[in-house]
Amino acid sequence: LTSTAVNSSAVYLNWTQPINFTSSGSYTVNNTCSPTQQTGQTSIYITGLSPSRTCISIVYSQINGVTGVGINISYITCKKIYFIKTHYVSNLSPIYGILTRWLILLLSPSVVPSQPGPVTIQNTTPTSIAVSWGAAPNMTAGTFNYTVTYQTGPQINDTTTANTSLVLTGLQSGTTYTISVATIGPVNLKSDPVYAYNVTTSKAYTLLNDTAVYLNWTQPINFPSSGSYTVTSTCSQVQKTNQTSVYITRLTPGRTCISTVYSEIRGVTGNGINTSYITRPSKVSPVVTNMWKNGSMQVTWQNVYAADNYVLSLSSNKGTSQTISVFSNETLSYVFSDLLPATTYILTITTVSGSAQQLSDPVSNTTYPSQPGTVMVANKTTDSIAVAWGAAPNMTSGTFNYTVTCQTAGYQSNEAITANTSLVLTGLQSGTTYIISVSTIGPMNLKSDAVYAYNISTIPLNVQNLIVVSTSTEHVILQWAVPADYKDGYQYRVNVSNGQSIVTASSGITIDHLTPGMLFSFSVQTLTYDQTGSALAVTSCCTDAAAVRSLICSGPNLTQAMLNLSWTQPDGFNNGFAVQVKDLITVISTTDYHLIIPNLSYNTEYLVSIWTNGCGNRSNVTTVSCMTGITGMFPVGVNIINIQYNQFTLQLPVHLLDSSHGTITHYGILLTTNSGTLSNEAIYLNKTFSDWKAGATPMYLAMVTKSQLQTRSDVSVLEVLIGDNSQYEGYTNGPLMAKTSYRYALVLFTNLVIKSSLISVEQSFFSISAINEAGTLPENPVIHCCVCMSVSIGLYQSIDDTQRKNLYVTCDSCYCDSFCSEPIKVEHYEAHFKKQRADSFCGFAEEFEDLKPVGVAQPKSSALAPENRGKNRYNNVLPYDSSRVKLSVQGSPFDDYINANYMPGYNSKKEFIAAQGPLPSTVNEFWRMIWEKNVHTLVMLTRCNEQGRVKCEEYWPSESKHYGNLTVTTSSEIPLDDWTIRDFDVRNVKTAETRCIRHFHFTAWPDHGVPETTELLINFRHLVREHMDQFSRHSPTVVHCSAGVGRTGTFIAIDRLIFQIERDDMVDVYGIIHDLRMHRPLMVQTEDQYVFLNQCAMDIIRSRTGTNVDLIYQNTAALSIYENFEPMKKSKNGFYKA
């Protein structure tokens, strides 16, 4: 691409035609200084530019709508030219002589002359072209001329004229010229030219074929009819004619010839005119082959004489074409590439020799179709394969098909032809490997190269009769029958549910590294050569349970005859264990991995077998031989009767002295008043009553006697009187002290040795039971009756005659029991209250003191069992066996224990459950008790932490939490100044049953103390009772504090007291506490709490008569702020109304 400046406003661009550029192509010229132009030539004039301007032009070639990559050029337009006029003046100077002064004047910029009008071709001859043009407008005659330029190829000629027409002579016939006319003005400034393109002179000859030429000429002026012409030629003979044309034949193809024509008139020959021409070259016969399947064709031909080059033209039936020029000295073949597939092309070759050309006959051929895309397997079955492939690109729909071939060794299926890009090959053999090919079939049945999918197998048949041959803890052996279509090379993939995957060629396998006691599923799949898998054959089984490890068996001493078993958790999973002792098999489901086997014989060897149960086979049996221990005499069933101020009687079951524990020769009772922990009780066997009385020992042997069981086989119990002053050797069974708490231990001797009237501890054989509570002895009745009489006399003197008649207080029972209590009528209670509170509540203190021994002699064997001791918060607050709450047994016989007792209320004997505050280890049991006893009302009377000490585990969750099989969710919480009310949703995950429980948490009660006012507790009781009456009519209400005796007893007592006052018009605080203590020890634990209850009774009575304005007592509702309280009904916002 080059540029030539024409003037200050025009530039001439020309460029070289691209290789293989077709005649139908065109060019687009973009300019930064002028509009875009289109042209079919390889040059263009860009006009209308500004002077001294930098411009960029870009030329793009276009063929069949496709634009090629542009080439660009930058240039600067010419500057304007200015006229300069000079003038000089000479002066005579006396000093310097003649002086010359030049005046240089810049007149004006020069003016480019205007363009001529359009150029018109008037006439053409073989040697001349007559042209004319319009006059340049606005030009002054005589100040300008026209320059005419005519150009063919690289040769440029020009001439100047003042006229508007000109005959260009001396031209070559049959030649194309470009003619331009421009105006030339002052200082030779030239206007933009005006063009006439592709002007061709007429030919003096016509090439007829490769051996003949037709010549014609113009008759001379005034040529007579008698004249003739003589035609000579360098390539043929001379001819004579009187016509203005002649045929010259028998020429050699591709030969340059010169013919001269002479005119003759009456024998006179004129000057001849001549013309030169080249005969047409010989016609070539091209051969077109499509031997390649890559979208190309090869053209070959034979060289012809005098050929300068060959122009190959290839066009298709789809409108595409290519033209290429091949010079004869290069090659006689050419390959057309990038052709459309499955397309018929027509080829012609034009032989060029100089200005002569010869067109070949057309030859056609068709390209091969393009290959299909990649072959993919869409689906496989046992007898079919569904394949799909990509469409063959650049193919015209409807002009081609696909042929699909499915081949295997020794077998080839029929070809299938389809116009689609997918096909299902049917009728195949199962488990067989095939090679699948797809080709495109185009016109003339030309077929593309095939696209292959190798080693495609149909799905094999699945294995048969999959079974589990055997199992162990870590292994499973599988076996199966080969599939019906079995072939060499088949393999089998075994998948295990634990993630293992094993491939084998055998029809059986051992699966290793499994987990004992676990359910596994197994699948077996037939595999072909290319790993195509069959349908799955599935089975499942459990591995054997693993045997227990580290089995330890021991027989503890000083307990029941039992064996303690413990073992390490076996590997894997299990459903529990089975333990066999003799003929008894115990099946347990536990995660604690220990078991107590009770009800055995002492000091006896047992063979214990244990195995693990699982979802499959049980484990191997682990066996151990162990002996039960020697008994330490656990006095189960010992009752205390006939408690007097100085003695009591123990009733011993005779089985304690039978030979099951060895031959008992003597038995004795160790006695102590010490409430602390005593160890090594054997050192006190030689301590006597005298030693204890002198303060020399905390414990002494109160009595010892010879066993008479063998001679008294008809009795079921033995009564042992303690404190009867009897003697044995050096021991005295001395009288006991009134109002004193005693504890005892039973001593059994299998060999008793006496030295110096005392037992020889070193030589005797004996066992000592645990120390048990005997209770507190009552007051000496003589002293107590004197007190009663004094009280009665004082009371009698302090009231009038009417009151004396209605007074119920009697002391008839003082002589037979320390329990001296009778209900007092409401109207007489104020006088009784004033009397008892005199002298710093001395009367109430004496009443409370009399309550201390109540109920303490009752057995508490379950609470004292070693397995249950850790479930008690305090060692001195243990539930009596007779009234304790029993839970369901879930494995261990001790699962039924919880530190809680049924308590009588006013309405029923089991209206309440008094419980200790849960420990971290007993929270699950606490919720289990609430569920199993169908509790709907729960009262808590302590804070979780008081004065830096933990009083109770916080057993409820902030949101939701699991406790064993129960899920507890806190659905609402209402905190107030003195108590908080919560609602719990308790759901049993096994049964999906949900219950609602209301939690009344009183927070204003100090430990071992009393609330600030009686009104506070009375109002709280009414709030609780209202809920109980609606939801707990047929189930107990759980009440607990920390130990479950002091505050708990006070709350239960005040509920009974209010009912007693309201319904019976009686007050019997002492009787209520006595009843409570017969069901749980230490109920109403402190004297302050006892006095507080009496004060409550007094305030309630006064509120009924209107004399206590400080107590706003409401019998039916509780507090005014709870008047709209709707128990157990949720509001829309999730909280309960309050």
UniProtKB/TrEMBL annotation:
Keywords assigned by UniProt, alphabetized: Glycoprotein, Hydrolase, Membrane, Protein phosphatase, Repeat, Signal, Transmembrane, Transmembrane helix
Reactions accelerated catalytically: O-phospho-L-tyrosyl-[protein] + H2O = L-tyrosyl-[protein] + phosphate
GO MF assignments: protein tyrosine phosphatase activity
One of the GO biological process terms: developmental process
Residue ranges annotated for the Tyrosine-protein phosphatase domain, each copy included: 844-1100
Keyword Transmembrane helix attributed: yes
SUPFAM superfamilies named in the record: (Phosphotyrosine protein) phosphatases II, Fibronectin type III
Domain Fibronectin type-III span(s) in chain numbering: 115-204, 280-373
Name recorded for this polypeptide: protein-tyrosine-phosphatase
Organism field: Denticeps clupeoides
Recorded name of the encoding gene: PTPRB
